Amino acid sequence: MQQSMTVFLSGEIHTDWRDQIKEGCRSNNLDILFTSAVTDHEASDAAGDLLGHEEKSFWRDHKSAKVNSIRIKTLIKKCDVAVIRFGDKYKQWNAAFDAGFCAALGIPYITLHDAEIVHPLKEVDATALAWTSNPQQVVKILSYVLKQA
To answer: Are strands 81-85 and 109-112 parallel, antiparallel or unpaired?
Structure first.
């Protein structure tokens, strides 16, 4: 009997990796609820504006990070597994933090990144239950977990 699960998708927002995973899971008839941080860069950066205008960008970013953290921490705590994507264009410190948060809570996570950044991510990958290099591998793992349960 196939089960359902909630998967938190964390990491870079400049490619369509999330859509590839979602489509792959849909085409495999997997019952998965996907959650994520806000992926609209401008909206995420403006989250702190809800608390009033800031003259200095540091304080705007500081407030926005905290407001976004409410969403991220809540969704990570509710997920069954997280997929943490590291791209090559920007350093995703937020993704590394999400991986550490998952590790601290005992929430299983899968990393998704190219082989070129294996070395800088060795500690993150050491705690991951799988390292994948493309979204299709993530879909295969999720399919295995749900269909073999």
So the answer is: parallel
Rounded average pLDDT over 83-89: 91
pTM to 2 decimal places: 0.94
**CATH architecture group of domain 4-41+79-147:** 3-Layer(aba) Sandwich (3.40)
pLDDT digit string (tens) for 2-30?
689 999 999 999 899 999 999 999 999 99
